[in-house]
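We modelled the chain as a single entity of 231 amino acids. Its sequence is:
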Amino acid sequence: MSQNYATCAACPYEFSERYCMREKGKGPENCPSLAHKDLKNRAIDALKAPYIFEFARQASIQESAGYGNRDKGYSHVYPLKPRIVELIEFAQRMNFQRLGLVFCIGLRQEAAVVNNILNDNNFEVVSVVCKAGRVSKQELQLGQESQIDMTAEEETMCNPILQAFVLNHYQTELNVLLGLCVGHDSLFIKYAEAFTTVLAVKDRLLGHNPLAAIYQYDSYYRYLKNPVSSL
């Protein structure tokens, strides 16, 4: 792969000046909007599949519906809805009936509330906890030193592939991910057959608000400016 890969997160141009935002905008040599017009055309072709087209169309409608004052220009817009409301509205736009809810056992109380909210909005909810299957971490060739509770004789592992298989079995139409661990969420998404959206990610330290560390990059979390050595 060429070393001149896309680096949009480090784009040197202001938001309003970027090529991806305006026809006569600017972009560096490795700007994907400029350098990969062939891939852009492939993406547009992929949208033409009937189900994909409608899913993308409704997602874009949902995006704009999340703001007020749109008729007064970008500097006047303001947010209207929390993500749980947007999730419900999008599922309704798509006429989904059966939703999957996959959650970490550490967020079981939150999952119960989400389940109630979705039920109250007339969705069928198939919910599967991360510890489903009661498979020992020994299946991963892990001993007590890799357990959360090192005093226990054995510990049940998280089982995101089983979570995906269960939701696949019940043919959910949209899956909602709530607080799975890093890596476990990736495995679920890989094996799930239906589209997956994220309601919240896990951050044990920050109350499941990982952006708190990003917002405090220049203060309490300034140590992130150095390589993280945790192994």
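As a brief sanity check on the tokenised model: DSSP finds eight helices and six strands in the chain. The CA atoms of residues 15 and 58 lie 25 Å apart.
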